[in-house]
Design a protein that fits this description.
- The structure is a single chain.
- The chain is α+β, with helices and mostly antiparallel strands and 149 residues long.
- It has five helices and six strands.
- It folds into two domains: 75 residues, no CATH class; 36 residues.
- Strands 1, 2, 3, 4, 5 and 6 form a six-stranded antiparallel β-sheet that branches.
Length: 149
C-alpha cells in the first residue's frame, strides 16, 4: 500500500512538472510603451528613449539614442538613473558654453599668477623651495612662541 501511494505521488509530480514546463511558460513578456515605465522622462535635452520597451524575461530593456551614441539600459531604476545623469551632462554643457563660464574660468586661471605677482611685489617671494619652506617654519615658530595655546 505504501509503495502504491509513493508511486502515485511520484507520477503526480512528474505530470505537474511536465505541464508547468510547456512552451506557454517560456514566452517573453510582450513589448510595452515606454511611458508606462518612464513617464515624461522618456525624452530629454540630449537623449530620446525608443517608444517600445522590450524584455529579456527578467528585466526591461530600454534603447536610448544620445549624441554620444546608442545605448541599451537594463532595468527601470538603472535607466532612470542614467537618464538623470544625461540631464546633468546637458546642464553642464549648457553652462560651459555660456559667456559667464568663460569669464569665470579666465579669472580662475589668472588667480595663481596674480597671487604670485602680489607676493613678489610685497617681498615675500622666495627663489627656491627650501628657502620658502624655511620661511614657513620661521613664521610658524614665531606664531606659536608669541601666542602659545
Amino acid at each position: 500500500m505504501r509503495r502504491g501511494l509513493f508511486t502515485l505521488f511520484i507520477a503526480a509530480c512528474v505530470v505537474s512538472v511536465t505541464t508547468a514546463s510547456s512552451t506557454d511558460a517560456l514566452e517573453l513578456p510582450k513589448p510595452q510603451p515606454v511611458e508606462k515605465y518612464l513617464g515624461k522622462s522618456a525624452a530629454g535635452a540630449n537623449y530620446t528613449v525608443q517608444p517600445i520597451v522590450r524584455s529579456d524575461g527578467v528585466m526591461r530593456i530600454f534603447d536610448v539614442d544620445t549624441p554620444y551614441g546608442k545605448f541599451a539600459f537594463d532595468g527601470v531604476e538603472f535607466t532612470k538613473l542614467r537618464l538623470h545623469e544625461l540631464d546633468a551632462v546637458a546642464a553642464i554643457e549648457k553652462m560651459s558654453q555660456s559667456e559667464a563660464f568663460g569669464q569665470a574660468f579666465g579669472r580662475a586661471a589668472l588667480g595663481p599668477i596674480k597671487f604670485g605677482a602680489d607676493d613678489y611685489q610685497a617681498g615675500r617671494y622666495s627663489r627656491t623651495i627650501p628657502e620658502r619652506y624655511r620661511q614657513h617654519v620661521r613664521s610658524y615658530r614665531r606664531r606659536t612662541v608669541e601666542h602659545p595655546r
